[in-house]
Amino acid sequence: MTDAFFYCKLFEEKKELSLPDMIQEKGYFAHETAVVDEGCEIGSGTKIWHFTHIMTNCKIGENCNFGQNVVVSSGVVLGNNVKVQNNVSIYTGVVCEDDVFLGPSMVFTNVMNPRSAVARRDQYLETKVGEGASIGANATIVCGNPIGKFAFIGAGAVVTKEVKDYALLVGNPAKQIGWMSEYGHRLEFSQNGTAICPESKEEYKIEGERVWKLK
């Protein structure tokens, strides 16, 4: 019998509080196989699923969701409504603003030149992920490169430099190939420098290397 099967069977057999009751009691839900260290700040409505470890001194906002086998290291800061898919490790130095999506098995780093025999805990670099950004499955974010608001990093991309707001990046090393709307659609700009999101119908403007949404 595997450990995973044992814990899932144990959870089925035990009379636990329902999910709504658990959220009401603690403010958030953590599956019984999850480990939540003391000293964390976790917002209401957040859900922490199987075999996930939330380490001490994390600050996690409201209505976040952590999939299976996630690690959130000490000192990480996550905003509201951050979605973390399975098998993601969020290392010390990472800051995610509201509504960030972290795809399955994507990777953060926090040291530029790691060596097993050299301690560099005082050299962790900050990586900030802007509001509404999406990072695709198996993508890698090299530390110290901020990700702009509503940027879209394609699956498997390796980000080695700063990413602009609304930018669409793919490849290894990642290269910008376009711009994305806040609803996740590629923007096609007309000669007058405007574009319309096909889903939200919101209008965007481009000037040089800067894109923003018009009110």
For the biggest β-sheet, the strand order reads: 1-4-7-10-13-16-18-20-21
Task: Give the helix/strand class.
Answer: mainly beta
Q: Round the mean pLDDT to the nearest integer and report it.
A: 92
Cα(first) to Cα(last) distance is: 58 Å
Number of strands: 24
Strand content: 25-35%
In DSSP terms (H or I, runs of 4 or more residues), the helix count works out at: 2
Q: Sum up the overall morphology in one term.
A: globular
Contiguous uncertain segments of 5+ residues: 1-15
The biggest beta sheet, please?
9 strands, mixed
Helicity level: under 10%
Please provide the ordered H/E string of secondary-structure elements: HHEEEEEEEEEEEEEEEEEEEEEEEE
Rg value = 19 Å
Overall description:
There is one protein chain. The protein is mainly beta and 215 residues long. It is built from two helices and 24 strands. 29% of the residues are buried.
Keywords:
about 220 residues; mainly beta; five-stranded parallel beta sheet; about 10% helix; about 30% strand; disordered N terminus
Could you outline the blueprint of secondary structure elements for this entry?
Elements lengths: L2 H11 L5 H8 L2 E2 L4 E2 L4 E2 L4 E2 L4 E2 L4 E2 L4 E2 L4 E2 L4 E2 L4 E2 L4 E2 L3 E3 L4 E2 L4 E2 L18 E3 L4 E2 L4 E2 L10 E2 L4 E2 L7 E4 L4 E5 L14 E3 L6 E5 L2 E4 L2
Parallel strand pairs: 1-4, 2-5, 3-6, 4-7, 5-8, 6-9, 7-10, 8-11, 9-12, 10-13, 12-15, 13-16, 14-17, 16-18, 17-19, 18-20
Antiparallel strand pairs: 20-21, 22-23, 23-24
